[in-house]
Amino acid sequence: MFIVDNRIAEIREKLGPLLDEMGIEASVRFARRSAIVSFLPKPGETRFSPVEIVFGDRGHYLDDDHEGRQIEDDRQASWNDAYVKVHKFHCRPLGETGWEAWESQDRKQHRIRRKGKDLYRWLSRLILSNGVVPTGGVTPFCVASHSFANAYTMVARTFPDVRVDQEFPSDDGSPTETLSFLDAQGRSVEISMRVGDAHSTVLIDGELVMTIEQEDTRSVRRLALDLARQPPEDRPGL
Asked: Mind listing the pLDDT tens digit for each residue in 177-207?
């Protein structure tokens, strides 16, 4: 079977002081014949490293026993089958609200050409230089939904005083993020998106008036323009 325990132990030992200083810790998950080592927030922290170490499993762990039957031979993950992946994130401030949206826009892969102390010095520089990234919906004032960030952009073009709120359910489920503003008639408007749902809800003066697909930014833009129009009787004369 494919085993990464030794590599994880090495990483935690060699990089431990740096990881502690940055508030992150090594964690492993398995996917597609590989083991991916991520550096996630330590308890009490909310930011993670965009750097990951991927150990490939080539599957050459079958051997023959003395009777010619194939058996599994425990195989330790090797640095020779590993590479480093660095995700590139972009921060998008949501106007002057103090809220941010962080989005992964690109990633780069680096072959591992070093060994021993040189390897860990290189990993340390790479992790340190890329810093830590906020976790959407966990780090304070960091929204969880990219669709919500796009909706903010559409609404703020017409209603620059729009407010951003984030509410978590009591069962520690996904947060609900809400845009709040007053339309041209002075009515209270709320556009709410729950992370993981397909649709957002639109309330006017507390009454549900419609739902919109969360990724449908054009409909959000049309809604904002409609809400910015005053009724004919309220418009100033020519």
From this structure: 999 999 999 999 999 999 989 999 999 999 9
Number of residues in the chain: 238
Tens digits of per-residue pLDDT, 114-123?
888 999 999 9
CA distance 110 to 126: 10
Residue whose token pair is 């010619």: 68
Question: Which stretches within 108-209 are classed as H helix?
Answer: 116-130, 146-156
CA angle, residues 181, 185, 191, in degrees to nearest 5: 30
Rounded to the nearest 5°, which phi and psi values hold at 167? -130, 135
- How far apart, in whole angstroms, are the C-alpha atoms of residue 159 and residue 161? 5
Alpha helix ranges (H) inside the chain: 5-22, 116-130, 146-156, 217-228
